[in-house]
Amino acid sequence: MRQFKVFRKTKASIRFKYCQSIIETITFIKLKGGMQLNSKGQSALEYLMTYGWALVVIVIVVAALFAFGVFNTPANCTQFGGRLLLKDYAIQATGISLAIQNGSSGTMSDLNASGDLGAGLMGSTSLSRSADTNAVFTSPIAAGSTYVMSISYTANGISHTESTTCVAGTV
C-alpha cells in the first residue's frame, strides 16, 4: 500500500505560499503593464509614421507644383481706359514694350510716354485713326513687380492721359 505523506500547514509554509502568490501577482502586473506600455508606444509610433508619410507626400506635391511653375506670377498688362487700345506687350528683363493703337475716330498728336520706368520712347508722335505705334520703356525690371505706364496725347485740342499697369512675372 502506498502511503501518502500528509503535509502539515505550518506557519512557514503558509508564509511561503502567501509570499509566492504576492510575487506572482506583482510579476503579472508588471508583465501586463509592460505589454500595455509597449502597445501604447507602438500605437504612438504608427500614428507618427502615418502623419510623417502624409507630410512627405504633401512636401513632394508642393515641390512638384513649384517646379512646374504653377505658383509663378504671369506677366500681364491691363488695357488702357479710354481711346488707346493695347494691342500687344512684351515684358523682358531690359524693359517693357507696348504696341498701342488709336481707338478714336480722330487723330492723336503730341504722344508722350512716361511712368514708373521713366520716360518711354514713342515710335511716332502722331496717330491717325486705327494707326499703330510702339511705346518702349527701357529700364531694368524686377520679377513680380508692378509698373504703371502712362501715355499722354492731344485729341481734338484736348489733352488726355491714359495708363496701363503691367505686372512682371518671371523675367
Structural account:
There is one protein chain. The protein is of the alpha+beta class and 171 residues long. The chain folds into two domains: 8-71; 76-167, Sandwich (Immunoglobulin-like), CATH 2.60.40. It contains one helix and nine strands; from the N terminus they run H-E-E-E-E-E-E-E-E-E. The strands form two sheets. A five-stranded antiparallel beta sheet has the order 1-9-8-4-6, with no helix packed on it. A four-stranded antiparallel beta sheet has the order 2-3-7-5, with no helix packed on it. The longest helix is centred in the first third of the chain and has 57 residues, at 11-67.
Structural class: alpha+beta
Please indicate the percent range of residues in DSSP E strands (runs of 2 or more): 25-35%
Distance between the terminal alpha carbons, to the nearest Å? Answer: 110 Å
Q: What overall geometry do the principal axes of the alpha carbons give?
A: rod-shaped
| Main sheet makeup | 5 strands, antiparallel
